[in-house]
Specification:
Helix Hairpins; 5-stranded mixed beta sheet; binds dinuclear copper ion; 12 strands; 3 domains
Length: about 325
């Protein structure tokens, strides 16, 4: 029954909380559904039974019935208290990370997620976690309020600027789950997605080592520069605003942009070359192309020189 209901509401349960969470979630739904049916049927029956039969029909005078009033007050009261107690127990569990939880720092910004690990490793868009071990996320935002939401883990929490928020979970087994931003945060909100990759502790550790030794946010340095740029373009969610096929999104398309002359908001025109692209990545507000809003976040501190070079090579190829 429970699994059947889940098919309608939620993706497969993949965290330690999920089973408890689903029980409560489904209990509330079943209880609500039973009440909905009972009340609707009662209304329909009463409408027919007590309808006005003739013009001179006088409805009966109904006085209070104590036992009835007590019944319909006390039963819902206990139902609500029961749900409160149940919810409070699960809520406390979700807010009490175990002492030995593995800590990962999460930074949200318009419109991507970055993850920093204790050994210096860093990833963008994809959160790596060890399966079977409790993980605690310490989260902050660089700009507006975002919300970290992994439906398969049944966890969601606001990520705020100037303050930390945290949550924890244990991913049950190696698997990949979707990550969403659940707080409207601007034009790129719907594209602010990512993945949570749960790996066996051995795989996770070898990924950590690799990522810390200049894996470049996951872009393997063995690949050609333009291919690394393509990987960075995807990981940093550039595609949310910049298309590769000439279609206009929030920002200019990259198709045919290299070497072209673009007109700026100031009326001046500028040739798209390496310096222009580099400046646009690090200081996006310096030169705004006419007709586009000044909404791009800076990637200073997110992308290093090598990664910027890779992106430039990638943009060159978009003819
Ligand atoms: Cu970030 Cu919505």
């Amino acid at each position: 029954m429970m699994n059947f209901l889940n098919k309608f509401f939620l993706p497969p349960a993949r965290s330690n909380f999920a089973a408890d969470y689903d029980k409560l979630f489904n209990f509330i739904h079943i209880a609500s559904f039973i009440l909905l049916v009972a009340i609707t049927v009662t209304i329909v029956v009463f409408v027919i039974k007590y309808r006005r039969r003739s013009e001179y029909d006088v409805p009966p005078i109904i006085t209070d019935k104590k036992w009835m009033e007590i019944t319909w007050t006390v039963i819902p009261l206990f139902l609500v208290l029961f749900i409160f107690g149940w919810g409070f127990r699960d809520y406390m569990q979700m807010n009490t990370p175990p002492e030995d939880a593995y800590e990962i720092h999460v930074t949200a910004r318009k419109w991507l997620w970055t993850f920093n690990y204790a050994n210096g490793a860093k990833s963008t868009g994809t959160l790596h976690v060890p399966a079977g071990k409790p993980v605690k996320l310490v989260m902050q935002s660089k700009d507006v309020i975002h919300s970290f939401y992994v439906p398969a883990f049944r966890v969601k929490r606001d990520v705020r600027p100037n303050a930390y928020s945290s949550l924890w979970f244990t991913a049950m087994k190696p698997d990949t789950s979707n990550l969403f931003c659940a707080e409207y945060c601007g034009t790129g909100h719907s594209g602010m997605t990512g993945k949570v990759v749960a790996q066996s502790p051995e795989d996770f550790n070898s990924w950590l080592q690799q990522a810390a030794s200049g894996g470049g946010g996951g872009a393997s340095s063995g690949k050609p520069l333009a291919a690394q740029g393509k990987a960075l373009f995807e990981q940093n969610a550039c595609s949310t605003c910049h298309s590769l096929d000439g279609s206009v999104k929030t920002g200019p398309s990259f198709k045919g942009v290299w070497g072209s002359k673009v007109t700026l908001k100031s009326g001046k025109s500028v040739t798209v070359d390496a310096n222009y692209v580099r400046e646009s990545i690090l200081h996006p507000q310096a030169k705004i192309v006419q007709g586009f809003p000044p909404v791009m976040p800076t990637f200073q501190g997110t992308l290093d020189d090598h990664q910027i070079n890779a992106l430039i090579e990638f943009i060159k190829k978009q003819q």
